[in-house]
Write a structure and sequence with these properties.
Largest sheet: 5 strands, mixed
Radius of gyration: 22 Å
Shape: globular
Number of strands: 9
Structural class: alpha/beta
Number of domains: 2
Strand content: 5-15%
Length: 335
């Protein structure tokens, strides 16, 4: 049985156009007991607890791990620490029972972009990662440049459907000879394009945005036409997705794999889904995505990852050793 509850902090961070660590931690502290109570309704038996210990914001991680350890002592059950990125790799397992290693894993989220060869449960080879901005971070930063709300990914995805993906030839950082990714240059290219556009047209994007400030006089520029904004979104998104799809398909073929599994918040992107599935079919590869509720961060994927570690015996059955959180925790093998 899969049961999960999520308290979204999106509204809390929208004002700041990004996640504020102190607000995130405080909200975790306020809501975590309420979510736990939702999960333990009834008399179901608790056999173990899985909790994220990294990577992520240290304050939020500490609140989660202290809650898990306290419940472990009270219920006298083992607690196992889970890598957040590893859980994203397993998120498709929740609904695709036929999916088993080996497969090529693509993690695309607000903080990470990883290409991982999943050889077995607990056995991985990280082939590539982003050298600068993650795919999700690039979406949010470009959305901010456009004057759009946070989080930027879903808004850009929606606007891109009304635009022409070939309207603006934004660069693609394919990085030949490497499985790594880079999106900082693309983000900068969008910024320069917007600056040139504003200078030439005297226009600005977004609501009540301020242009030049001369001698204390604030000058407001009129917004750009929706079609122009849509074309920028579509062209930017096309550049991001083209690189993600190309490298993932090439990696799967290079290592002789027939399956690809995608996880992380950006896996909810409709264009990435359609392009990767289409290219997968063209190359006789089966592509798996979690449904939208399991694409973003969720407890179900963490619990499932814990289930596999429990099955292999990778936990402290006496619950005597404190778990250590690591904001920069890398993907590690545990078999």
């Amino acid at each position: 049985m899969v049961r999960h509850a999520i308290f979204s902090q999106t509204e809390l961070h929208q004002t700041f156009k990004g996640v504020v660590p102190e607000i995130a931690s405080r909200s975790h502290l306020e809501k975590i007991n309420e979510l736990v109570e939702q999960m333990i309704q009834g008399n179901q038996k608790i056999d173990g607890i899985a909790v994220t210990i990294g990577p992520g914001l240290v304050g939020s991680l500490l609140i989660g791990k202290m809650t898990a350890e306290a419940l472990g002592w009270v219920w006298d059950v083992p607690v196992v620490g889970i890598n957040h990125l590893e859980a994203h790799l397993y998120s498709s397992f929740l609904e695709h029972k036929e999916l088993k290693p080996p497969f090529m894993g693509l993690i695309v989220s607000g903080g990470h972009t990883h290409l991982v060869l999943v050889e077995d449960f607990g056995k991985y080879k990280v082939l590539g990662r982003t050298r600068d901005d993650s795919a999700g971070e690039a979406y949010d930063k470009v959305a901010k440049c456009l004057g759009l709300d946070y989080p930027g990914g879903p808004i850009i995805d929606r606007l891109a459907k009304k635009g022409n993906p070939a309207a603006i030839p934004f660069p693609r950082a394919h990085l030949p000879g490497s499985w790594d990714f880079s999106f900082s240059g693309l983000k900068t290219a969008v910024l320069y394009f917007l600056q040139n556009l504003r200078v030439s047209s005297g226009s600005f994007i977004g609501k009540k945005n301020i242009g030049a400030n001369k001698g204390g006089l604030k000058i407001e520029f009129p917004p750009l036409p929706l079609k122009t904004v849509a074309d920028i979104c579509a062209s930017f998104q096309s550049a991001v997705v083209e690189v993600l799809v190309r490298k993932t398909i090439l990696a799967a073929k290079k290592f002789g794999l027939k399956k690809i599994a995608v996880g992380g918040g950006v896996s909810a992107n409709s264009f990435l889904r359609s392009e990767l599935i289409r290219n997968g079919k063209d190359n006789k590869l089966k592509v798996y995505f979690p449904s939208l509720p399991y694409s973003t961060d969720n407890g179900a994927m963490v619990a499932l990852t814990g289930y596999y570690k429990f099955k292999k015996g990778f936990y402290d059955d006496k619950n005597q050793e404190a778990l250590e959180v690591n904001p920069s925790l890398p993907i590690k093998n545990w078999i």
